[in-house]
Design brief:
This protein has 432 residues and is of the alpha+beta class. The protein has 3 domains: 2-31, no CATH class; 39-329, Beta-lactamase (3-Layer(aba) Sandwich), CATH 3.40.710.10; 353-431, Alpha Horseshoe (Serine Threonine Protein Phosphatase 5, Tetratricopeptide repeat). It is 44% helix and 9% strand. It contains 18 helices and 10 strands. The chain has helices at residues 2-19, 21-28, 37-52, 102-113, 115-118, 148-155, 163-170, 180-189, 191-202, 212-223, 229-240, 255-268, 274-280, 317-329, 353-368, 371-379, 394-400, 427-431; strands at residues 58-59, 75-80, 85-89, 95-96, 177-178, 225-227, 285-287, 292-297, 301-306, 309-310. It has a 5-stranded antiparallel beta sheet. It has a 3-stranded antiparallel beta sheet with strand order 4-6-5. A two-stranded antiparallel ribbon has the order 1-10. A hairpin with a 4-residue loop joins strand 2 and strand 3 (85-89).
């Protein structure tokens, strides 16, 4: 019996490994986008605990179903472009997407119809007014797809029947539900959205043949779709991965649709806080009045933060604080990679990568006799004593190559002059 079970186990192991050898090789070699993932997850947990102490904000009450959530709920999930997952807090509790559905419906519309066709009916500029204002741009179009007017028009462009399945594909077939109670509440309390709809009907904002009431009804349905933090993080990760779901490896959205969506999330995604979010956090994000924040770190990961208490503009207090703490610790801000910028932690690099890179640059400059590069390294406090795999310093390399002019730098590197290489020759002896 034992032998039989062992044989089956070995066969199953071979079957599993055979189809996933590339994935396993990445894991064993620490070649995932976050190589030290356990360490990174611990830092996420610390940020989560710090932010949990925030007790400001109020739960949205203008939609009765939203008012029922406890202000103590707080969850964060992340999914990297390689499918690495981490969750902390209330991450299995379903909640409505609300305005977090707007980037998804826009991405699907562009994927199916193309950028030009979609933007015949909606603009791409920040509105400068509240998200639910009766306001159009100079061409009598909604300012962008991230405000209510724009999302209602986008609802008239996409197919109702397959939208739920499309979102499930973006979420890697993980949980995507629907709250009928929220849908009914939206319809009963949606006077402002009805006013926006009729205003746009008067201005002929909808495509020919579209019934405004049908588009509005579909918009209410979209806002009532449910996810958890865990499934929501996969939605964000698919956007971070250029439209390919990291869980199923399926190309769900076109690269064009994702690029456009992230651009608009970055400039218009956070209500009246969009400018500050772009300034302080520097990442594409979309918030909803359910307390959700969909955060995308392009080419790295997607995150879903959820906490019902909102600030005065309708963003999750804990969610905003989490995003700010995340970027203060890690170099995820869009402009953190600028030269001479204060260095933050980069979880994309394996421990020791920086040292290896700096040593390679130093030795390469010494090999080529590049004095300007060596002076620059010295000014930036690089360790000029570091040794390569053969225990040689930069001066040993320069001496071996016969780069006489390098000895002009000897005062800066005087501590190396008498160092011996593995052949027991000092740098001076080798040069001679």
């Amino acid at each position: 019996f034992t032998l039989k079970m062992t044989a089956i186990t070995q066969y199953k192991n071979q079957e599993c490994v055979g189809g996933n050898i590339s994935l396993l090789m990445q894991a064993f070699r620490k070649k995932f986008i976050i190589p030290e993932f356990a360490e990174f997850a611990e830092k996420i947990n610390k940020i989560y605990k710090t932010v949990k102490n925030q007790d400001e904000g109020k739960v949205a009450n203008y939609i009765p179903q939203l008012a029922k959530f406890s202000p103590e709920l707080w969850g964060v999930s992340l999914c990297t472009v390689d499918g690495q997952r981490h969750s902390v807090g209330d991450t299995k509790q379903p909640f409505c997407l609300q305005s977090c559905v707007k980037p998804l419906q826009y991405a699907i519309a562009v994927h199916e119809l193309g950028t030009e066709n979609v933007h015949r009916y909606v603009g791409m500029e920040p509105s400068g007014v509240k998200f639910n204002m009766l306001s159009l741009d100079d061409d009598d179009k909604p300012h962008n797809p991230m405000v209510n007017a724009g999302a209602i028009v986008i609802s008239s462009l996409i197919k109702v029947k397959h939208f739920m399945n499309f979102v499930k594909r973006i979420a890697g077939q993980e949980f995507v539900g629907f709250s009928n109670a929220t849908f009914q509440s939206e319809k009963e309390t949606g006077d402002r959205n009805f006013a926006i709809g009729y205003y746009m009907k008067e201005k002929k904002c909808f495509p020919p043949g579209v019934e405004m009431i049908d588009a509005l009804d579909f918009y209410f349905q979209l806002c009532s779709m449910e996810v958890t933090c865990e499934s929501g993080s996969v939605l964000a990760a698919t956007l971070a991965n250029g439209g390919i779901c990291p869980i199923t490896d399926e190309r769900v959205l076109s690269a064009e649709a994702v690029r456009n969506t992230l651009t608009l999330m970055h400039s218009c995604g956070m209500y009246d806080f969009s400018g500050q979010m772009a300034f302080h956090v520097g990442l594409p994000a979309k918030s909803g009045v359910s307390g959700a924040i969909l955060l995308v770190i392009p080419n790295v990961m997607g995150m879903m933060c959820w906490s019902p208490p909102l600030d005065r503009v309708g963003n999750s207090v804990r969610g905003i604080h989490f995003c700010q703490e995340l970027v203060s610790l890690f170099n995820f801000h869009n402009y953190d990679d600028l030269r001479h910028f204060v260095k933050k932690q980069d979880p994309r690099k394996q421990t020791g990568d920086d040292n290896i890179g700096s040593m390679f640059q130093l030795m390469f400059a010494a090999h080529n006799g590049d004095l300007s590069a060596l002076r620059r390294f010295s000014l930036f406090s690089m360790d000029m004593d570091q040794k390569d795999y053969d225990s040689r310093t930069a001066l040993h390399v320069a001496a071996a190559e016969g780069t006489h002019s390098l000895f002009e730098c000897r005062q800066r590197l005087e501590q190396q002059i008498d160092a011996e290489d593995p052949q027991k020759l000092s740098t001076v002896e080798r040069q001679l």
